[in-house]
Design a protein that fits this description.
By secondary structure, the protein is α/β, with parallel strands linked by helices. It has six helices and five strands, in the order αβαβαβαααββ. GO terms for molecular function: carbonate dehydratase activity; zinc ion binding.
Length: 172
């Protein structure tokens, strides 16, 4: 099978990147001891938008910047790699604001069939959409603060990134 254009770009771009790479000696734990949970949206560049240099922080990305999806990674980040703060950042114009679980399941059924819909049981069929952005930020921060897996000593904040302006605003 021939490489796709995306794969070719990966190889070409990586050759250029690796030719000048000088930071192979960075420590495994993040230097600034924090983790960021943010959305996988391609319009967000967490390093540039949130001031993260290579080696500073763990950046955990998933659909909607979802705390429940990120919990496994956050436990590893804190318990095994020493982070002491969580910054959760959702964003305006998020796709998770545009559908309900039934809508997503219907698309899966239409595109992949009934058998695939059964596979949604891997995450209980909950795509974790949300109708209100700031309430979702607050809810995720409360979830993390209430989790037995996140120590009370961990600072947790919630933010909204505005894709239209590039600015962040504090929610909680």
């Amino acid at each position: 099978m021939a490489p796709t254009p995306v794969q070719e770009n990966l190889v070409t771009s990586n050759k250029a990147y690796a030719s000048g790479f000088t930071q192979g000696d960075l420590a495994l734990p993040p230097a600034k001891k924090y983790a960021v949970v943010t959305c996988m949206d391609a319009r967000i560049d967490p390093a540039a938008a949130y001031g993260i240099s290579l080696g500073d922080a763990h950046v955990i990305r998933n659909a909607g910047g979802n705390a429940k999806d990120a919990l496994r990674s956050l436990v590893i980040s804190q318990q095994l790699l020493g982070t002491t703060e969580i910054v959760l950042v959702k964003h305006t114009g998020c796709g998770m604001l545009t559908f309900k679980n039934e809508d997503a399941a219907a698309v899966v059924r239409q595109n992949l069939g009934d058998k695939a819909v059964e596979g949604l049981s891997a995450f209980n069929g909950d795509f974790q959409p949300f109708p209100d952005l700031e309430k979702a930020v607050t809810s995720d921060v409360e979830f993390l603060r209430g989790s037995e897996l996140i120590p009370d000593s961990v600072a947790i904040s919630g933010w909204v990134y505005e894709v239209e302006t590039g600015r962040v605003k504090s929610v909680v």
